């Protein structure tokens, strides 16, 4: 079995075929899907094999060719090393404060504080950003779904507190609102991705606003400190939203649902530079702090 590259209307040299492919074309290989090679007329003479006799090249030319080959081999090896290194994937959740990471285990945390927060997130996502009697039904449904039986009223209260915030009012007034937005954004300094999920994204005056729901059991007095601890996440969300949507980002808002308090971080050039430095250091394993 010989491969054949079909080249329509490609001329054959006046001096005869210069390659095996050219010879097959002169034998009509381009006229049928399969050709019996035993039925073909043997080529006249020896097909060229594209080599030069040792005496045909000067010492300088031979050295240059050898050097070019070594450079090609080194470049190929480097390319293979980069390909085999795997894709760097940095997650926004990995940049949470250490105390906010789920405990290690089998991943089953039904009934935990983590699941309470997931239940509130689910209620907010399914609410359509509208308050009303339907919130109580949503709270009952997500309480069952996330192992929070007996906390239906608490889920409904926290959900309503978030829905009554200024950030949600601004989102309702927007012409473009996207809940639960996943992102995968190429890193700026080489192969790799930043990935995560933004709770709420909306457009305002030609720019994007990122809203991140926080369901921590935090008091109003501790909100400022808690927002500072979450800053790394804000950096990634603000940077990634702008890169993914190719739009400017106005601000990142942390909406602390339990106390009903929000904290805004304006996104400017310094903010984005800090985000890129954070990603670079995280990719190099230098830590996120």
Molecular structure report:
The protein is α/β, with parallel strands linked by helices. Helices cover 40% and strands 16% of the residues. It has nine helices and six strands, in the order ααβααααβββααββα. Strands 1, 2, 3, 4, 5 and 6 form a six-stranded mixed beta sheet that branches. The protein is elongated and about 90 Å long. The two termini are 61 Å apart. Residues 101-111 have low confidence and may be disordered.
Specify Rg, calculated over alpha carbons.
32 Å
Shape: elongated
Number of helices: 9
**What summary fits the major beta sheet?**
6 strands, mixed
Ends distance: 61 Å
Low-confidence stretches: 101-111
Topology summary:
Elements: H1 20-26, H2 59-84, E1 89-91, H3 113-126, H4 134-145, H5 152-163, H6 166-172, E2 177-186, E3 193-204, E4 207-214, H7 223-229, H8 231-245, E5 249-256, E6 261-266, H9 269-283
Parallel strand pairs: 1-3, 4-5
Antiparallel strand pairs: 2-3, 3-4, 5-6
Helix pairs in contact: 3-4, 3-5, 4-5, 8-9
Put the structure in a nutshell.
This protein is α/β, with parallel strands linked by helices.
Features of the shown structure:
elongated, 6-stranded mixed beta sheet, 9 helices, alpha/beta, single chain, 289 residues
């Amino acid at each position: 079995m010989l491969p054949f590259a079909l080249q329509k209307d490609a001329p054959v040299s006046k001096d005869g075929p210069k390659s095996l492919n050219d010879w097959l074309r002169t034998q009509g290989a381009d006229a049928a899907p399969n050709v019996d090679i035993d039925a073909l007329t043997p080529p006249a003479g020896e097909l060229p094999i594209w080599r030069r006799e040792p005496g045909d090249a000067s010492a300088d030319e031979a050295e240059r060719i050898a050097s070019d080959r070594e450079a090609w081999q080194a470049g190929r090896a480097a390319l293979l090393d980069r390909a085999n290194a795997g894709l760097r994937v940095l997650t926004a959740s990995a940049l949470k404060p250490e105390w906010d990471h789920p405990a290690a285990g089998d991943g089953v945390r039904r009934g935990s504080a983590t699941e309470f927060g997931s239940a509130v997130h689910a209620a907010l996502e399914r609410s359509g950003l509208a308050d009303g009697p339907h919130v109580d039904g949503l709270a009952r449904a997500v309480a069952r779904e996330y192992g929070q039986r007996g906390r239906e009223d608490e889920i409904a209260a926290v959900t309503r507190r978030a829905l009554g915030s200024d950030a949600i009012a601004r989102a309702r007034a927007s012409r473009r609102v996207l809940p639960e937005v996943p992102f995968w954004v190429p890193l700026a300094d080489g192969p790799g991705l930043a990935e995560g999920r933004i709770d709420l994204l909306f457009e305002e005056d030609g720019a994007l606003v990122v809203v991140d729901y926080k369901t921590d059991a935090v008091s109003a007095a501790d909100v400022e400190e808690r927002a500072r601890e979450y800053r790394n996440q804000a950096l990634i969300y603000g940077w990634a939203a702008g890169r993914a949507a190719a739009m400017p980002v106005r601000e990142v808002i942390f909406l602390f649902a339990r106390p009903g308090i929000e904290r805004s971080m304006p996104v400017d050039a310094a903010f984005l530079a800090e985000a890129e430095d954070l990603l670079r250091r995280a990719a190099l394993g230098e830590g996120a702090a």
